[in-house]
Amino acid sequence: MKKIFLTGATGCMGGAAVRRFMEMENNGDFELRILARDSEKNHKQLEQYADRIKVFWGDLTDDALLKECVKDVDVILHSGVFISPKCDDHPQEAFNVNYGSTLSMINAIKELGQQDTTHFLYVGSCAMTGDRMPPIHWSRVGDPLKPSIYDYYAVTKIKAEYAVLESGLKYFASVRLGAMLPTKSEDTSDPIITHQPINGVLEWTDQEDAGNLLRNIAMYAPEEFWGKVYNISSGADWRLTNASLLADIGGDLRDMYQPEWIALHNFHGTWYLDADKLNDIVPFRTRSYQTMLEEWKSDNMRNIQAIMDAMAENPDMKFPTPEETKATNYKTITSSPRGTMYGILNNDDTRIKVWYGSKEKYEAIPRDWDDVVITRPLDIPPKKMMKLGFDETKPVEELDIRDMKEAAAFRGGECLSETMTKGDMYTPLRWKSADGYEFEARPYTILFAGHWSPDDLRREWRYGHIAKVNPFFNQVWGILHEGEDDDYTVEMIDDGSEVEKKYGVKF
Predict the structure, then answer these.
(1) Which of 128, 34, 107, 114 is nearest to 72 (CA)?
(2) Element (H or E) spanning 7, and its range?
(3) 441 beta partners
(4) Which one of 236, 347, 372, 398 is at 20 to 30 Å from 448 when CA atoms are compared?
């Protein structure tokens, strides 16, 4: 019997995975363990499966409980997370939960002697790639990682994925999840809604597909799946722009916000050049974007009808006018501390640069929606992909130390190791960044997963400097910040250093 441990089982992705497991005809083929916070809501959600799952009540910061959860398991599906945008208000908790739980489970696996048997699946995020506005909106695993400034969620996900890739476990993988649909209505009432450029892109994932993926990896993933990083995508028809999605679900941005309240950059989202790779290895897609949209609208119409019925019974109830909606959004969302207008109202040059590039670019935004150009970039992938810094025409088994040194030089640094076994992507080598930071990492982590010096995400965001010394990184920075004063730094409230001390790791 296969033993599986799932974190995040009461969330969107994990909850969908539980449903997929419970649909299997023969529940005797596996034991499903889940970790859930001890709340009335979670008890109610899970009570229907009480006789078919083993629930550990607690949270991801309980090291002793996590060790008990992973004991003797064959597969760990780590989808549990302290989610954005809450991370931006509580960065320390974000590092404790997202980064700390990952390190805790890795340590527990090793202490239990399961490093050669337990398969560890980590769920990453598209937020790790950061701002990829057109014309660099196409990406693949291996491109530079660039968490958006103030996005502590993305930083925790990068550090946790790096820990998994460098864990020394025999079986590991990371799947980077984009945004999921259907989305929660509360997501539209947070200042993060103002961070999303009108013409920004995202490649979405069906919530049910995401759950299906976790179930299928645990039960059916072939040997070739492990040891790699993948992007999750429900398919080409799920490639949307921020504006097109809102239009599809019946919203009108013009009735809710002013154009100048919406950031010009510093969010995340790309379309994937490698969108089908994961589905080819572990099939998981279940429905088209249009099918999901029709089902979502049908469910939503029932909610709207309920509101209309209530309004019919109470004449004092009414929908707010666009002017009233904008006034409310300005007061509660856009001018709040994480809102885009907070920097404008307080003459905060750093926040203005982060969201708009400069005060001049902010002033240049049309104030009338009729003057705003809403567009969708070409769906045609570029002929040239971003350079990874080595000869990609060579088979992996032919890559040698010269390729490592070439890749390091393209990142502004050095590969300090002088020898390696040709084609060995998993024995750590020694590297040095342009700033002199030395570290050990597997060639796969550097060449094929987009990671570089762990010190680049400590203490502060300093992308202007990094772009000047690291040509690899400059591919995702320079073109979006031409003509801007990019020599500025933004101090981090937390960078995960205390979590690393707690678990005895130093990357």
Answers:
(1) 114
(2) strand 2-7
(3) 429
(4) 236
By C-alpha distance, which of 497, 446, 445 is closest to 156? 497
pLDDT in tens, the chain (507 residues): 899 999 999 999 999 999 999 998 776 689 999 999 999 999 999 999 988 999 999 999 999 999 999 999 999 999 999 988 889 999 999 999 999 999 999 999 999 999 999 999 999 999 999 999 999 999 999 999 999 999 999 999 999 999 999 999 999 999 999 889 876 655 567 899 999 999 999 999 999 999 999 999 999 999 999 999 999 999 999 999 999 998 888 778 899 999 999 999 999 999 999 999 999 999 999 999 999 999 888 877 676 666 666 666 777 777 788 899 999 999 999 999 999 999 999 999 999 999 999 999 999 999 999 999 999 998 899 988 999 999 999 999 999 999 999 999 999 999 999 999 999 999 999 999 999 999 999 999 999 999 999 999 999 999 999 999 999 999 999 999 988 777 789 999 999 999 999 999 888
Query: In whole angstroms, how far apart are CA 319 and each of 47, 133, 291, 308, 459?
Result: 37, 35, 29, 10, 46
Strands 30-36 and 53-57: parallel
Listed in sequence order, the DSSP H helices in 126-193 are 152-165
DSSP code string of 464-502: HHHHHH-HHHHTTTGGGSTTS-----EE-S--SHHHHHH
Q: Which two tokens stand for residue 258?
A: 């002013």
Residue 419 CB coordination number (10 Å): 7
pTM beyond 0.85, yes or no = yes
CA-wise closest residue to 257 among 192, 357, 327, 188 = 327
